[in-house]
Design a protein that fits this description.
There is one protein chain. By secondary structure, the protein is of the alpha+beta class. It has 6 helices and 10 strands. A 5-stranded mixed β-sheet has the order 2-10-9-5-6, with no helix packed on it. Strands 1-3-8 form a 3-stranded antiparallel β-sheet, with helices on one face. Helix 2 (57-98) packs antiparallel against helix 3 (105-116) and helix 5 packs antiparallel against helix 6. The longest helix is centred in the middle third of the chain and has 50 residues, at 167-216. Residues 148-174 and 329-333 have low confidence and may be disordered. Keywords: Membrane, Transmembrane, Transmembrane helix.
C-alpha cells in the first residue's frame, strides 16, 4: 500500500510538471503567433504599397523573398513549440490513464484538440501566407512593367524630333526609335519573366519546406512504434510484483497473440528472460494494458526490453535481495 501511494505521488508530481510545461510553452506559442502574424501582415502591406513607388524590380522581389523566408522561419519555431506541447501532453495523458485514474483533464483536452484537427489548419494558414506573398509580389512587379520603357521611348522621340527637322532625318529617327523601343521592351519582358519565375520558385520552395518540416519534425518513437511503456516501480524487493504498462498511441489497435513475446527482462548478467502473452490481447487506440512481472528469481539491476527488440527502456529496475528476518536464538543449557 505504501509503495502504491509512493508511485501515485511521483506520478502526480510528474503530471504537474508536464502541465506546467504545457502551460508555459502554450504561452510562448500564443505570443509567437500573435506578434508573428502581425509582422507578416505588415510585410505584406509594405509589399503591396510598393506599386506607388518607383522601386526597381529587384527591390520588389527582395521584399517578397524576405516575407517568404520569415513565414517559413516562423513556422519552424511554431512547430518546435507545438512538438514540446504535444510530447508533454502525451505524457500527462498516459499518467492520467495508467496511474492518476481520478484525473481526466489532459485526456479531455486532447480529445477536443484531435477532433478539431487544428494542426492541419495551422499548416494551411502558413501556406496561405506564402501564396498571398507570391500574388502580391507578382502583381506589384507586373503592374509596374512598361512604365520605364514608355518614358524612355517618349524622350527619344522628342529628342529626335527637335534635332532632325528634315523629313528624311525624321523618318530615320523614327526608325531608330522603333528599333530602340523594341530592344528595350524585349529586355524588359525577359527581366519581368525572370523575376516572376524567381518569385514562383521561392514561393514553391517555401510551401515545400513547410510540408517537409511538418512531416520530419513529428514526434519520434525510439522503438519505431507509436506506443509508450511505463514501469510503476523502479526499486523493489525480490518477490514483489512490478507492473509494466503499454499505452497505444497509434490510431490502429495493437495486438499480442497467445505466446507472443510481450517484453524481455535483461538481468544483471545480460541474460534475457521472456514474458509472453497468456491470451490474445487487443489494445485500442489510446488504450493501455498491464502485466505483472514477478521478481522472485531476479536480483540486481534489471532492464525492461519491450517486445524482442533488445532495446531497453531508459529506466532500470533495482531488485534488492530479500533478507530473511533474523530469529532470536537462545542457548539452552
Amino acid at each position: 500500500m505504501a509503495g502504491d501511494q509512493s508511485a501515485y505521488t511521483r506520478a502526480f508530481d510528474e503530471w504537474k510538471e508536464a502541465r506546467s510545461v504545457i502551460s508555459r510553452f502554450d504561452g510562448y506559442l500564443d505570443g509567437l503567433r500573435r506578434y508573428g502574424f502581425v509582422f507578416i501582415a505588415t510585410l505584406l502591406a509594405a509589399n503591396s504599397i510598393q506599386i506607388y513607388f518607383n522601386f526597381n524590380n529587384f527591390t520588389k522581389l527582395f521584399l517578397s523573398l524576405i516575407t517568404i523566408v520569415f513565414i517559413v522561419s516562423l513556422y519552424l519555431l511554431d512547430t518546435y513549440y507545438r512538438r514540446i506541447i504535444e510530447a508533454a501532453s502525451i505524457r500527462a495523458r498516459i499518467l492520467e490513464t495508467v496511474v492518476l485514474l481520478d484525473i481526466e483533464l489532459n485526456d479531455i483536452i486532447s480529445d477536443k484538440f484531435e477532433e478539431g484537427k487544428l494542426q492541419g489548419y495551422i499548416k494551411k494558414i502558413y501556406n496561405g501566407f506564402i501564396v498571398i506573398a507570391m500574388i502580391i509580389g507578382a502583381v506589384v512587379i507586373i503592374a509596374d512593367h512598361g512604365t520605364p520603357s514608355s518614358t524612355l521611348v517618349n524622350s527619344s522621340t522628342q529628342s529626335t524630333t527637335q534635332v532632325n527637322s528634315s523629313a528624311l532625318s525624321t523618318t530615320f529617327g523614327s526608325s531608330s526609335t522603333l528599333t530602340t523601343t523594341s530592344v528595350i521592351q524585349d529586355a524588359s519582358s525577359i527581366s519581368l519573366v525572370t523575376y516572376i519565375l524567381l518569385l514562383l520558385l521561392a514561393g514553391a520552395s517555401g510551401v515545400y519546406i513547410i510540408n517537409y518540416l511538418s512531416d520530419k519534425l513529428a514526434l519520434k518513437y525510439p522503438r519505431g512504434r507509436k506506443e509508450d511503456w511505463i514501469i510503476d516501480n523502479f526499486s523493489c524487493k525480490q518477490g514483489d510484483k512490478v507492473r509494466i504498462t503499454v499505452t497505444n498511441l497509434d490510431k490502429t489497435e495493437i495486438k499480442f497473440n497467445v505466446n507472443e513475446v510481450v517484453c524481455e527482462i535483461m538481468d544483471k548478467k545480460g541474460l534475457f528472460h521472456q514474458m509472453k502473452a497468456e491470451v490474445n490481447i487487443a489494445i485500442p487506440s489510446n488504450g493501455n494494458y498491464s502485466w505483472l512481472w514477478d521478481t522472485t528469481s531476479f536480483e540486481g539491476i534489471c532492464k525492461i526490453c519491450p517486445r524482442e527488440g533488445k532495446n531497453p527502456l531508459r529506466r532500470s529496475v533495482c531488485v534488492r535481495e530479500k533478507t530473511e528476518p533474523q530469529k532470536n536464538i537462545t542457548d539452552k543449557h
